Amino acid sequence: MDLLVNLCGVKLKNPVIAASGTFGFGAEYDEYYDISLLGGISVKGLTLLPRQGNPPPRIAETAAGMLNSVGLQNPGLSAFLSDELPKLRQKNTAVIANVAGATLEDYENMAKGLQGADVDLVELNISCPNVKEGGVAFGIRPAMVEEVTKRFKKHCEQPLMVKLSPNVADITDNARAAEDGGADAVSLINTLTGMAIDIETRKPVLANVTGGLSGPAVKPVALRMVYQVAKSVKIPVVGMGGIETGEDAVEFLLAGATAVMVGTANLSDPMACPKVIQGIKAYLERHHLSGVQEIIGKLEA
Amino acid sequence: MDLLVNLCGVKLKNPVIAASGTFGFGAEYDEYYDISLLGGISVKGLTLLPRQGNPPPRIAETAAGMLNSVGLQNPGLSAFLSDELPKLRQKNTAVIANVAGATLEDYENMAKGLQGADVDLVELNISCPNVKEGGVAFGIRPAMVEEVTKRFKKHCEQPLMVKLSPNVADITDNARAAEDGGADAVSLINTLTGMAIDIETRKPVLANVTGGLSGPAVKPVALRMVYQVAKSVKIPVVGMGGIETGEDAVEFLLAGATAVMVGTANLSDPMACPKVIQGIKAYLERHHLSGVQEIIGKLEA
Amino acid sequence: MKEYRAEILENKRIAQDIYRMVLRDEGFERALPGQFAHLRIPDGRHILRRPISVHAYDHDQRTMSLIYQIKGEGTRILSGMKSGESVDTLMPLGRGFWVPEGTKEIWLMGGGIGAAPLFEAYRTWGDKVKAVFLGFRSLDVAYGVDLYDKAAFYVATEDGSFGAQGYITDMLDRLLEKKRPDLIFSCGPVPMLRSFKRVMEKYPDVACQVSLEERMGCGIGGCLVCSCKIQSGDGWSYKRVCKDGPVFDLKEVDFE
Amino acid sequence: MKEYRAEILENKRIAQDIYRMVLRDEGFERALPGQFAHLRIPDGRHILRRPISVHAYDHDQRTMSLIYQIKGEGTRILSGMKSGESVDTLMPLGRGFWVPEGTKEIWLMGGGIGAAPLFEAYRTWGDKVKAVFLGFRSLDVAYGVDLYDKAAFYVATEDGSFGAQGYITDMLDRLLEKKRPDLIFSCGPVPMLRSFKRVMEKYPDVACQVSLEERMGCGIGGCLVCSCKIQSGDGWSYKRVCKDGPVFDLKEVDFE
Ligand SMILES: Cc1cc2nc3c(=O)[nH]c(=O)nc-3n(C[C@H](O)[C@H](O)[C@H](O)COP(=O)(O)OP(=O)(O)OC[C@H]3O[C@@H](n4cnc5c(N)ncnc54)[C@H](O)[C@@H]3O)c2cc1C
Ligand SMILES: Cc1cc2nc3c(=O)[nH]c(=O)nc-3n(C[C@H](O)[C@H](O)[C@H](O)COP(=O)(O)OP(=O)(O)OC[C@H]3O[C@@H](n4cnc5c(N)ncnc54)[C@H](O)[C@@H]3O)c2cc1C
Ligand SMILES: Cc1cc2nc3c(=O)[nH]c(=O)nc-3n(C[C@H](O)[C@H](O)[C@H](O)COP(=O)(O)O)c2cc1C
Ligand SMILES: Cc1cc2nc3c(=O)[nH]c(=O)nc-3n(C[C@H](O)[C@H](O)[C@H](O)COP(=O)(O)O)c2cc1C
Ligand code: FES
Ligand code: FES
Questions:
Q1: Which of C71, C210, C214 for mutating ligand 1's site (highest number of atoms within 8 Å of CB)?
Q2: Strands laid side by side in the D36-39 sheet
Q3: Which neighbouring-strand residues pair with A51?
Q4: Which residues line ligand 1 (CB under 6 A)?
Q5: Residue D46 with chain C: CB contacts under 8 Å
Q6: Peptide bond into B189 cis (omega under 30)
Q7: Which DSSP state fits C95?
Q8: Where are the beta strands (DSSP E) in B230-296?
Q9: Looking at CA atoms only, how far is residue C238 from chain A in angstroms?
Q10: pLDDT by residue (tens digit) across C117-168?
Q11: Nearest Cα to B21, choosing from B155, B215, B185, B171?
Q12: Ligand 2: residues within 6 Å at CB?
């Protein structure tokens, strides 16, 4: 069974990557299983300087989904490079640095700060809905997507993947903008902006009022966008949004994703990623297919 | 207990309206309960000429949600006026004509065709994702929203409510465009475009490939948009998206909706609307409130 | 029709992935052959009900038997429910089989899980039902073959593990060459119904009714998702399986 | 810690809206006082687990008792589960109470459902636990008051329906004027913990540990949603209740 995929030059032992923000820097999950069996890990979103993030409550449960407003709490790029990356590199899995900034200069400095860093891929988060400064603004207008991609790419030594926001009218415009800006891949979707209200207190559940919706609830929207984007760009697409099982992952692969990310499902079940890998394998076996390549983009529509 | 609300001059005995497309012309639900107890009914989306709609399968189940691609199957405006409206008018509930067109001329002709018709309100559907010609296109760009509203309004004798699409980057732009075009109210959200894949056949579940996502899964997105729009326009807002219970409805009312619509929940449970009305009442009683006015827009955020 | 919280009296595996569920509710309205029940899946994730045909209905006891096959998540969850639990049930829905005046002899033809609804027709019009034809993939998934004690009974499996080997429509065809009923009630997978329709084109004076399946939303006629193509006059239109059917005149059905 | 499909041995109402659930799994790892279990809600709509503190843990029997109150949908669904069913359980999670060397006397102070986790501390360090203070809203919601047989036991209710009338923190305050332990373990609603902190500012030499609550995602330290404000040096930082806690030094906690 050949699960190997090639993501813009990066070889992943299987197409399952832990999604940014749901998996810390991997250590906590390594207590449950050897995280070397993952295709890759996209680490918690990094910024140049450390960030405390938003006040709690930062999470609200919704029907088959959840809202979060963590707001990029992270130790900052240099602490990541010195403290976390070396530990992560002991594991045999691709490491993806997920990075965000508030200004174009921030992004440029992030790219420079990552020069020489032993990460396999950089994932440019221009779509985080939970930070006030910048963040999501870069991810909405195609011209901005192209600009920030171009600026980052100029200083970026690693293959670059741009993570797209679903809070747009036509996500293919932004995917093409990222491609035009020099992205080597795109990943989607980040969270849909949502809200929950506590009717007893008459207040929003999240201290931040709104948050990012993720989990099974968003899967139909994510799958539609991955399908549309895969048809619109030539660079590879990494699909995510609500994947809980191998069957879910197969839907995204059929829709044209080269690899998938598993986010919220890690919160429901720390064993989610290995279960997704197992599920893909089982599907391929049941259909007598020799490898995952035989299903990528093979939707008959 | 005062459940009465005033929706741009139309008095509704309570703020619960059956959403377009999930309630036919009311007759089927009248076999379960007297539909006179509803605040209003928005009828199945009407077009000038009869439409057969899209081929089946037209529905796919998703996590706490569903996709539909009915595609505006309807008997056409004149059959509605002659065959359905008289029956509906025997019931003591507000009647809302939900109308859609493929061209600006269509919309104008619809407005004219409705002149003299005994409907309380017209709901302009410029956001149906399931028809190829026009439909959704009118609902995306603010300039188009304003234009189609203006043209329709010119010939429209009834109060006009514009139904907004959630498949946009900033829904407040479109809400303001509708207001500027002369809308007396806005309703939101229509469905989010989504997709589901049958991994055994490797085909989309829906014959139409994509469809509109509705149900509890979309509630957080709907609630966020209603909250944003209620703060952005002066005309009243009708909120919907995933409402199943009185508690759900109260969330939308707190967020600023003057009334709510219940759609998909009618499919899960034909008694959904009366249960929502009951649930709102129970909430008001439990909190010793004298009427629904005491909660509309009363979110503390 | 109404909404009930019906009690499960029995929920038992009767063949491979096939279960019989018996529901009771004091308020049950009388169900007719070919009508269906619309069951809510009791977890919060599946918001759509599942349509299941009435297999047998007893108005004295107010009990309804359903036979269902595990296909996906919904039916899998149903199969895990226990006696004593209750199921949110809409019933009786749709337009079932009907017997035109003057009908003397009825035959029943069903395949796979489509055999289930035919039994209530046999219970209701047993004196007129002279022959029953059931087709299954194999013995493992055959069920309800001992119920038709007063009719000529024909059974075929694709692999020959039970009854004749082959398609039940061929068997029916051979019998029709010798003998004709006034009316045939049928239900089964689309490929079977397609060949049934082809067979019956040779015998235009035999009236045929067929029970169709389509993915449903409301199940009561309000949402227009369960459309099937029905010929009317020169053209066709989409009819609602849940309300205009599920039983239609075979001649009018366009299987495409 | 690990993921278990633990069997429910008991799930019983013990006070108004308060239940005791006893779980068993052969593979249970030893749970320490103040640690918690993270339970999956067995329907498909609630994707987040629910954190519940260990009330009592028996490593010989591999049984864990939890006491929980019905607050919303998740705990309501849990309360409907039956013995013999299984619950997807992560345990033991978090950093529990700890006893610094040289500690001679420990007191326990808890309010409402926060009284639940204190019992395992009593079971573990019973020889050191000399006094227990429990506060409840009223008699209806009081539970577990007969468990502390070897310690001085104080109970207060807000309405006076059981024990003294008033707040348990006032009672504690009065006793502290006469007598001091080395260490107090506490758990309860935030308003109670706030006044507890105020009271303890008068007795700075008594070490206090407090078990906090915050809405959780993963429960294992990976998602950073369960943050609480903890003083460190001159400033503060957000710590994870699930991994860095739930038990913290009272002095460091900023209740805002
Ligand atoms: C009028 C009618 C009567 C029926 N009677 C019976 C019966 O007596 N016994 C029986 O076993 N089955 C019957 N079916 C089919 C049964 O409804 C489906 O097998 C069942 O809904 C599958 O649900 P699932 O959750 O297991 O499958 P999933 O594939 O997980 O279901 C996903 C969605 O697709 C729908 N769906 C999937 N397959 C079908 C199908 N064949 N027809 C309609 N909807 C489908 C489901 O209702 C659900 O909305 C009947 C269908 C109809 C329309
Ligand atoms: C470390 C820890 C230990 C706990 N121990 C116990 C215990 O022993 N007994 C007990 O009854 N309760 C305990 N709680 C509180 C318990 O987790 C909540 O009451 C429960 O999650 C509410 O779930 P629900 O579905 O009934 O409520 P809902 O309001 O429907 O839950 C919605 C969401 O909010 C979260 N939530 C709601 N209230 C709380 C809360 N107070 N703390 C954390 N999350 C919350 C839920 O986990 C869920 O994600 C503990 C909480 C924590 C953090
Ligand atoms: C708690 C949480 C934190 C997240 N933090 C980040 C982040 O730091 N950077 C990022 O690019 N995406 C972040 N995301 C988004 C996820 O990586 C993913 O795009 C999204 O959740 C959809 O996938 P899912 O439904 O599988 O979770 C976060 C999601 C969650 C639930
Ligand atoms: C089966 C179905 C058909 C629909 N048809 C229409 C329609 O004709 N016109 C319209 O404006 N909205 C239509 N809608 C959208 C609903 O009115 C509503 O905006 C949407 O479903 C969100 O609300 P809900 O989650 O309560 O269903 C339809 C929705 C469904 C599920
Ligand atoms: S299922 Fe709604 S009309 Fe048939
Ligand atoms: S709940 Fe995920 S870090 Fe605490």
A1: C71
A2: D50-53, D36-39, D86-93, D2-15, D18-24, D63-69, D56-58
A3: A74
A4: B 61; C 36, 48, 50-53, 67-69, 71-75, 113, 116-117, 213-216, 241, 246
A5: 44
A6: yes
A7: B
A8: 237-240, 259-262
A9: 23
A10: 999 999 999 899 999 999 999 999 999 988 998 888 999 999 999 998 999 9
A11: B215
A12: A 61; D 36, 48, 50-53, 67-69, 71-75, 113, 116-117, 213-216, 241, 246
Is residue B125 in contact with ligand 4, taking CB distance under 6 Å?
A: yes
Q: In chain B, whose CA is at the least distance from the CA of A201?
A: B300
Q: Is the pTM of this model over 0.90?
A: yes
Residues of B classed as catalytic: 128
pLDDT of residue B127: 74
What pLDDT, on a 0 to 100 scale, did the predictor assign at position B166? 96
- Annotated binding-site ranges of C for FAD: 50-53, 67-69, 74-75
- Determine whether the annotation assigns residue D114 to a binding site: no
The SS3 call for residue B173 is helix
Q: How far, in Å, CA of B99 to CA of B119, rounded?
A: 12
Q: A224 in contact with B at a CB cutoff of 8 Å?
A: yes
pLDDT tens profile A228-269: 999 999 999 999 999 999 999 999 999 999 999 999 999 999
Cα-to-centroid distance, C70 and ligand 1 (Å): 9
Is residue C86 predicted with pLDDT exceeding 60?
yes
What the block records as the tokens of A261 is 């990310």
How does DSSP assign chain A, residue by residue?
Answer: -B--EEETTEEESSSEEEPTTSSTTSHHHHTTS-GGGSSEEEPSPB-SS-B--PPSP-EEEETTEEEE-----B--HHHIIIIIHHHHHTSSSEEEEEE--SSHHHHHHHHHHTTT---SEEEEE---TT-SSSGGGGGTSHHHHHHHHHHHHHH--S-EEEEPPS-SS-HHHHHHHHHHTT-SEEEE--PEEEE-EETTTTEESSTTSEEEEESGGGHHHHHHHHHHHHHH-SS-EEEESS--SHHHHHHHHHHT-SEEEE-THHHH-TTHHHHHHHHHHHHHHHTT-SBGGGTTT----
Distance (Å, rounded) from C-alpha C188 to C-alpha C135?
A: 9
pLDDT digits (tens, 9 = 90+) for A8-26: 999 999 999 999 999 999 9
pLDDT by residue (tens digit) across A28-86? Answer: 999 999 999 999 999 999 999 999 999 999 999 999 999 999 999 999 999 999 999 99
| C-alpha count within 13 angstroms, C-beta hemisphere, residue D87 | 31
pLDDT of res. A39: 98
Contact yes or no for C43 and D43 at CB 8 A: yes
Peptide bond into A189 cis (omega under 30): yes
Q: Let me know: does A161 contact A238? Beta carbons within 8 Å.
A: yes
Q: Is D228 annotated as a binding residue?
A: no
Give residue-wise pLDDT tens across range C166-181.
999 999 999 999 999 9
Does the annotation list D208 as a binding residue? no
As a whole number, the mean pLDDT across chain C is: 95
- How many Å lie between the alpha carbon of B64 and the closest alpha carbon of chain D? 7
Distance between Cα A210 and ligand 3 center (Å): 15
The pLDDT, as a whole number, for residue C232 is: 86
Q: What span, in angstroms and rounded, lies between the C-alpha atoms of A176 and A173?
A: 5
CA distance A280 to B16: 45
pLDDT (tens digit per residue) in D40-65: 999 999 999 999 999 999 999 999 99
ipTM of the prediction: 0.96
> For position B138, what pLDDT does the model report?
80
Residues of chain B falling short of pLDDT 70: 128-136
Contacts of C153 (CB under 8 A, 6+ apart): C131, C132, C134, C145
Res C208 pLDDT > 90: yes
Confidence bin at A206 (pLDDT 50/70/90) = very high
D159-167: average pLDDT = 92
Cβ atoms within 10 A of the Cβ of A107, count? 27
